[in-house]
Amino acid sequence: MDCAASCLTAQAIASASGPLFALFTALLHAAAWVIAYWYALAAAAAAAWAVSEAVVRHLARKASAERMALELVAERHFDPGLEEIFRRGVQLARASTSMPWWAPRRSKAVQIRLRADGSRALRYRIEGPAGGERLLSITPFGPAVTVQRARPLADKPREHVVRAEFILRGKPTAPLREVPLDPDPLQPLIDAVCDLRTELGDLAEVRLDIQRSPKWVLRARRGQLMADARRKERREAQRSAKWVRHDAGEDSFAWQLQHLISGKPSGGGRRLVVPPVARRVDPQEALGKLADDDHLVRVQLLVMCASNTQGRAQARLAQLQAAFDVFGGGSRWAMRGWSVGPWRFGADRWPSRRGFERRWQLGHCQPPRPNWVRLEELTGLLKPPTVHCRLPLLAADLPTFEFDNPRLLLQGIYRAPDGRRRLVASHADETLFEVGVGKAGGGKTERALAQAIGWAHAGGGLMFVDPHRDSWPRALPFLAHDTLMQRIALIDLNAHGPTPQVSCWNPLGMHQGQRAHEVVEATADAFASALGWDDASAPRALTILTAALAVLVALNETACQAGQCEAQSTIFHVRALLTDPLFRSAALAGVQGRLDEETCSWWQTVFPTLPADSFAVVLNPIARLAANPVTRAFLGQPAGVYNIRAAMDSEMIVWVCPGGNGPTDRLITALLARDLLRAVRSRRDSPESRRVPFRAYFDELITLTGAAPETIAAMFEDFRKYRVHVHGMTQLLARLPTPVRLSLVQNASTLASTAGSQSAIAAVTAEWGEHPSPAHVAALDRYEHYMSLTVHGRRVGPVQITGVHVDTVFAAYARPRQSTALLRSAQATAGTAPLDQLTARAADQLARVSRFLTQHTPALPTTPPEQKGYQ
């Protein structure tokens, strides 16, 4: 009975275990087959991976072909806040997903390109999916950043190229260092490329790819980090328990020996030992920056440097590596690869180079490590350079000066961060007005003089007004060239030497084809400006002088049309016209039909009622001019050679030295300035394309504007229209009349300042936004300037520029042996004559005019005379 039962039980077990046994047997056979034919499975798996990778790469290339590029250009005042930058980061992360559903993850990224190629200190571009263009085109930075569609960049092959990929090293849950916005976090990167030289083929580019983190990878990483944290906590608890028991004596060797010898169990009086238990792991503490999904992105950082000169690319990469060290904190950016002796195996060598090139060209984001960061850690890279960034001046920002190039205007010497010095210039057609401020001897006049010499050798015309004449002897040796001598005229009223030579000019002369009403207006305004007359304070004086000038100008016009230009009247004949009845009657009779009805009526009805003492206010300044033999000789000739309009049109070089800053000198200066304004405005009769560029340099603006404030202000407002550009130098802006100061600062294309007192410089630094500060500018060395310029329509600077020395920069142009020949030629071109001869001729001029009036008849030719003057 028992045997039968046993058999039945065995059969039941066998029948029940049959499927399990069969399954076990099949598994054994399958394992044996896998072991025997493992290579077939490996080949199949490799083929499947290759096919899937090929499909993924094809789709990724197709998705990358639809990418777009934007370039961001920030204004100099760009100063974003942390919230604006963070919002921009959110936009970038969101735009990375604007791809078709079939696009592989590696192509779902937005790329920030920081590029230095010589065209700009640092070009900031955004490349990403075409679907994200609308999202990326509108930035939270406002109008301070211009977003424009970027063209594809094509680089010429360089001889030496180095590549690098940076990955995050250190504690994976620790953030990068929080870098402040002031100074700009991009400053280390810009400093690393500040010595880039385009002529050597230098190029540096940093690419930062941003994409959203894969959720499943992030969850797996969190699970791993939590498991690691728990294991670590258990080990710490076990270690703590061991030390607790040790401290209680139970684990000590002496206690164990005593227990063995005595054979007694541990006494109940010993203290109770409670080993510590593992504490609960805090997820926030264990996961760090990986605890939350919000604003967590995966990044890829690639760098490429190139040059045609060996060693420069490697040095540039080392500089960029040091720049990224600034962001190092609990984690840091480290270059991927390893070093073996003098060799380094990284992105430049097999097997990493091919993958680097593919990711570089297609914009794929496949970092070898997760490289998880929060958007707050990338604050410094999510925006263009700000106002707190110190940008270097490249050749594309400020051109290099070229001798004899009429398109460039010398500005000074720029010292690059690497110590190289180069002559810099501004574009001549953009340098409309210049203002130089600073203390005496700081280098303002020297810089203007060097600029004028360079412009003259380039073929340009100019007028240099220097009341103190110091600039002429300095410029003389460098202008003594045969090609320039015929273009130079010297108007020197200092009359020095044993036989002084003086030029001549008749402000009322009509032999040069001027318009009568313009000559009258210019002369009357010059007197009014120098003497402070206006319609409220001196209406009678203005009326008398204007009426007298109208008669004399009409008389001169009559003489010129009669072919007797030597019979013209001068400014000194105003006295005879007002006080000599015979001369007045002859003059009024001689200009009959040339004066308008109102002027004729004034002479007939109003003039006879004026008391004799009413003429004193008009005659006193003319008497002072007549008392000075130099001014009497200069202004007393009937037909002077001085013709500033002809000088402008023929690109002449006119040096004017008024002779001082006294009342008489101020009146001469006012006459010259007003005549210049009249001549420039007369250019309206020429088409704009035929107006030859001309430059006027005014040294000692305080002296000049004291004589003609409204005239100088009008120059800074009007001359640009007629292609005449003004360069002014002064020690103090505050001492200039308000109209001049406002017009000068408002229209200045170039604003420069040397050292000086802080109170005097504050007016200039205020135009720069107090960067640099007045204290900084006041501490400049001699011949050092801070300067802002206009290049390609944008303000450049303020930047520190070293003033040029004429003796150094133009040493090759010096011709000291020909200085005497140039002086004689410049005087001859200006029509100079001995002072005593001109004085005698001026004294006899009234008699010549009277003879002409006596012999004059109404039958006069109507053909205007041929224009005379500088040819």
Descriptive overview:
With 871 residues, the chain is α+β, with helices and mostly antiparallel strands. It has 32 helices and 24 strands. The strands form five sheets. Strands 1, 2, 3, 4, 5, 6, 7, 8 and 11 form a nine-stranded antiparallel sheet that branches. Strand 22 (784-791) and strand 23 form a beta hairpin. Helix 12 runs parallel beside helix 13, helix 16 (539-561) packs across helix 17 (573-579) and helix 25 (709-718) packs parallel to helix 26. The longest helix has 34 residues, at 215-248. Mean pLDDT is 83; it is low at 859-871.
Briefly summarize what is shown.
By secondary structure, the chain is an alpha+beta fold. It contains 32 helices and 24 strands. It is elongated and about 155 Å long.
Rg is: 44 Å
> What characterizes the major β-sheet?
9 strands, antiparallel
Structural classification: alpha+beta
Total beta strands: 24
Beta-strand proportion: 15-25%
Tell me, briefly, the overall form. elongated
Average per-residue pLDDT, rounded, comes to 83
Helix content bin: 40-55%
Unreliable stretches, pLDDT < 50, 5 or more residues?
859-871
**Number of helices, counting only DSSP H or I runs of 4 residues or more:** 32
How far apart the termini lie comes to 149 Å
